[in-house]
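Case study B.
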Amino acid sequence: MVDRMGREKACLITGTCIEGRPVEILIDETGTIAAIDEKISGSERSNAEVIIDGSGTLAMHTLANTHTHAAMSLLRGYADDMILQDWLGQKIWPLEACLTGEDVYWGTRLACIEMIRSGTTAFNDMYFFMEEAARAVDHAGIKAQLCYGFIDLNDHDKREHEIRATEALVTSIKGMQNPRIKPAVGPHAVYTVSPEGLAWLAAYSASEQIGIHVHLSETEQEVLDAQKNSGKRPPAILDQAGCLTDRTIAAHCCWLDQADCRLLAERGTTVSHNPASNMKLSVNRAMPYPWLVEAGVPVTLGTDGCASNNNLDLFEEMKIAALLQKFAQNNPTCLPAEEALSMATVTGTRALGFGSGLLVVGEPADIMLIDRMVPCNTPLHHQTSNMVYACNGGAVKTVLCNGRVVMQDGVIPGEEEVLNNASRAAADLVRRAADQAE
Ligand SMILES: C[C@H]1O[C@@H](n2cnc3c(O)ncnc32)[C@H](O)[C@@H]1O
Ligand SMILES: [Zn+2]
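Model:
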């Protein structure tokens, strides 16, 4: 907890519940969970200078969004109901050519507010003007792994430009020395990055010991083109360049075959499942969840950007993931609620390197307090079932990140200013793109 002067303070959450057990949670001045007990003892509770009344709530670890493009919140509803190649080529990339750093700042602030409102305090982001995204995450008080979306289209000069942009972002984020913000590298996909670009990114990420965030095997076309152009499937192309590592998060992965899944498992790569985006862009195949689990690949959850989802609510994503897999496998036991919740908490948080994703003593106090007295939590036979199948992010009342309150009883300081600036930035961006097209 931080007071008005910016000093860290110990804090106590009273009156909440963890898995049906009434508890109090003590958070020390470093933002770590110090104690969880039915009643925190008098000597310990006297350390807490701030009390948060959690009565009528359920306390849970917050959620981790492992694939998004946060500033695409400005493009929400701009281009719907199209296939991926047309959506990117005809609508999204022409608009993105007109983006400014200020757009990315306000778009990312807007995305952070939306994520906080729905219980997400850590995300994995790939976009442009990422120094501005880092500033936005810093101001929002949550956690992110940020990378520049590297696209060289097999062009030498573009590649040099993308290399400089990647290095500049990594240097800038390291210089911030903010443990809530990490740099990564972001090869967009095998169809937009040359083998030389991929090899440079692999070597650079290894030397800096930072993550790799990539789109992988999203469409059948991507796989067919890769085979036609190189004789290899997309995971093998990434692997040959050194981009499949235990620091890699690969998004989508809808068109993997069983051998691809085994390769990802051998390399320790994590997958981000993005079911809403995949269905909306109609990629025509569900990510092969049973094959990935059988191979031992960690599977996490991401929303993708707001132009293909069109929100950042991971509660909705948990439900959509569970329903899509059951439907695709014709098996109602596939991806049960407990697994959907683990993907969004434990596996996602670990993949981003922000802790265990568990609400236990010694871990960062990344905590959401969920309203118990709402229809989606009435009755509450099985809490996990309510979280995955009944609730959406609207049930979240209060959110802490590293022990700092970022939303209390539905109030996020500065929200109105962010909404106003994001609306203006979105309108100006669309106007500039229309002028450019004339
Ligand atoms: C960073 C770039 O990635 C683009 N993008 C957003 N969503 C997708 C997707 O589902 N597949 C491929 N590329 C995507 C984004 O618009 C940026 O240009
Ligand atoms: Zn994406």
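The mean pLDDT is 97. The remaining cases will be described in the next quarterly update.
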